[in-house]
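> Could you send the ABC transporter substrate-binding protein prediction when you get a chance?

Sure thing. Input:
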Amino acid sequence: MKRIALLLSALLLTAPSALATSVAQVKQKGVLVLGTDPTFQPFEFKGPDGTVQGFDIDIAREVARDLGVRLQVQSVGFGALMPQAVTSGRVDMAMSGITITPERAKVVAFSAPYYRSAQVFIVRGGNPKGFAWPASVKGRTIGVQADTTGQYAANDALKPKGATLKVYDDFAAGLADVRAGRIDALIGDAPTVTSLKQRLPGQFAQAGSPLVAEDYGMVFSKGSDLAAAANRTLARLKASGAYQRLLDKWIVQK
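Output:
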């Protein structure tokens, strides 16, 4: 966490020079630019036709609708998305299963939480290596995706207990190593396990207890009134039942 704190301190020195994107600016240009890393099914992923879809995308589309503009989706790697794409003005908002943390909130503005999740351990179907948390960590090799809260939590909780961490820029590469037995487990978000079980029956499972619980938020530049606009959309969706319908569409296991 010290390394992350130093990085965020450096960003705090440079980020304020970027102007916050406002509702008025978005309405003037007629488009809301969403940055996302489309490798996190069912929240954001590329469909058969190549378009980015998912739970986050549908919520962002509702924010754009309430603003009276169209949604434009930009695919951005997670490392570049948070927070650089937002603070630089490359995108107006970011959604990619982004966890709300005090450290990140020093650099960007978050909406109210829109989804409660947890970081869990993904193992090969049947868990042939018998991995469990917190019982069997010492001597295990655990995969983490770079610049994610899973990596931060693993640095704090798993390394001191003797686990070896393998860092991946690409989450799919970590899954490939789990499937091949090259690592004992991969840390990922709980809905990912549900999605994997549906898409690839028998290939992956969850093992042990969750590492940490967390809330996802929509991300905006500091001082932007877009965060308040997004909160109004989220409140509308929940009051009307549309939020639950989106959960049923993308996340609730049938």
